[in-house]
Design goal:
Elements (H helix, E strand, L loop, with lengths): L3 E2 L6 E2 L17 H39 L1
Antiparallel strand pairs: 1-2
Length: 70
């Protein structure tokens, strides 16, 4: 993939650049990258919820086991 053109100053800019090196105009990230970030954020949230659920279930199980030992 070749360089793209800056919408502000028409300078050639690399496709992965976040801003134009000539004028500093911010460039939007490619849509695929933005989608990957959203999916990563959702995956992290799902993992956190899963860990909390497992800890909760272990706590409930431990409570019942401890209650029967007394």
């Amino acid at each position: 993939m070749g360089p793209v053109t800056c919408p502000e100053c028409a300078a050639p800019v690399l496709p992965r650049a976040r801003s134009c090196p000539r004028c500093g105009h911010p460039l939007a990230p490619p849509p695929a990258e933005a989608e990957r970030r959203e999916m990563r954020a959702g995956a992290v949230a799902a993992k956190i919820v899963a860990v909390l659920l497992v800890l909760y279930m272990l706590g409930v199980a431990g409570y019942f086991v401890y209650d029967h030992l007394l």
